[in-house]
Amino acid sequence: MFKNISVLTQHSKCPMLASIRHFKPTFSVQSSKEEALKARQQELMKRGLPKRKTIEGVKHVILVSSGKGGVGKSTTAVNLSLALSKLNSSPKVSLLDADIFGPSIPTMMNISELPLLDSKDKMLPVMNYGIGCMSMGLLVDPNSAVVWRGPMVMGALDKLVHGTNWSGTDVLVVDLPPGTGDIHLSISQTVEISGAVVVSTPQKVALADARKGVDMFSKVGIPVLGVVQNMSSFICGKCGEKTHVFGCDGAQKMAAELGVSLLGDVPLDPALMSSSDSGKPIVITDPESEISKTYNNIAQQIVDKLN
């Protein structure tokens, strides 16, 4: 019996046991410190961001974005602008091409003239189909590449946004470049935005980038008005058979997962492609087509959300 006591006494003197006895968990302290540090970092980041300001003369700004190029974003921006202008409320709609390196609006809207200046040296939007347009494609040689670094790009973007006379515009539709780069962040962080529309095909590789676009707008506090599923299917002109060239309902499933609205499905149609390339948008040339009705429905949903 006394042997056991002596052994226990010896073990009690063991430095390892002593340290274990005196060990006090610090997880809660470390966790609270990390949370405080994170909150402090967020506060400093908010201080460093520029304050958002409205674009003079503009009531609402809608961004049209896509994670990946070639999914029909600019076609959507053009036909959405025209569909918005045809609503019963007859809003004045303008269109800004924010793709500095690859502007598409001059071709799709059939405009090419150099913008005039007003008495305050602000550029006047070039008009066609009742829509006032501004694009870098109107200011540079259309056959020359724009080879600029960041500061020049940001300067050009600021000139397009704030150096244009948008007076009386109810809705300014902004056709963003593909991706989630500097131009997206600059506009999102410096301009008061009413909402964003994300365009994608049902294809998996396009949806992966579209998710990032939705996530980016969420992080910068811009509401996503919805997703447009472009090239949703191809309908044969002879037999009427529907073929899902890029997959079926991919954008619809993504929208449901992310908790955003699916604004509409736009099928793959040669008439839509040819109308865009010819500078005669399908909403103008064939207003009774199913595609035009889809754009009209998307436009009405957006106005309802804005109101």
Task: Give a verbal description of the structure.
With 307 residues, the protein is an alpha/beta fold. 43% of the residues lie in helices and 18% in strands. It has twelve helices and nine strands. Strands 1, 2, 3, 4, 5, 6, 7, 8 and 9 form a nine-stranded mixed sheet that branches. Strand 6, helix 8 and strand 7 form a beta-alpha-beta unit. Helix 8 runs parallel beside helix 9. The longest helix has 22 residues. The chain is globular, with a radius of gyration of 27 Å. It starts with a helix and ends with a helix. 39% of the residues are buried. About 2% of the residues have low confidence.
Short structural description:
Helices cover about 45% and strands about 20% of the residues. With about 300 residues, the chain is α/β, with parallel strands linked by helices. Strands 1, 2, 3, 4, 5, 6, 7, 8 and 9 form a 9-stranded mixed beta sheet that branches.
